[in-house]
Amino acid sequence: MKQKTISSSQPFEVRGIDGVQAAGDNIVETENEQISGVSHAAYRLVATNLHLPADSALHRPGQIVPVSQNDLDAALMRDRDQTL
Predict the structure, then answer these.
(1) What are phi and psi of 82, to 5 degrees?
(2) Reported pTM
(3) How far is CA 19 from CA 2, 35, 60, 69, in A?
(4) For position 84, what pLDDT does the model report?
(5) Helix and strand numbers, DSSP H then E, in the chain
(6) Domain range spanning residue 79?
(7) Kind plus residue range of the DSSP H or E element containing 83
(8) Burial, 72: exposed, middle or buried (Cβ in 10 Å; 0-12, 13-18, 19+)?
(9) Contacts by residues 58-67 (CB-CB < 8 Å, ≥ 24 positions apart)
(10) Are 16 and 50 in contact (CB under 8 A)?
């Protein structure tokens, strides 16, 4: 499993997650598995999980939610386009 921090400068929405997420930093975990039977090391994406921080104003605890990597990438692209 690999972790990285993503940053958004604007509140953002990701398909499959209810509501608008606050701007800021979030941790994303990705899990890959090795593909066997090929002549070189190859991996495929198995899962992407987004860590959502707790939000006391909404009475929401911190969560780890599965997301589509494509949907997450699209949300980050929209954020970048809004800040240019």
Answers:
(1) -75, -25
(2) 0.84
(3) 26, 36, 12, 18
(4) 60
(5) 1, 4
(6) 2-83
(7) helix 69-83
(8) buried
(9) 58/19, 64/29, 65/16, 65/17, 66/16, 67/14, 67/16, 67/17
(10) no
| Residue type at 68 in one-letter notation | S
Residue of 44, 42, 49, 57 whose CA lies nearest to 17: 49
On the 0-12 / 13-18 / 19+ scale of CB atoms within 10 A, 12 is buried
Residue 3's pLDDT is 98
Is the distance from CB of 26 to CB of 52 less than 8 angstroms? yes
The answer to whether the Cα torsion of 46, 52, 58, 59 is positive or negative is positive
Q: Give the total residue count for the chain.
A: 84
Q: What is the mean pLDDT of each run of 10 residues along the chain (84 residues)?
A: 95 91 95 93 96 85 95 93 75
- Amino acid 25 reads D
Tally of structural domains, the chain: 1
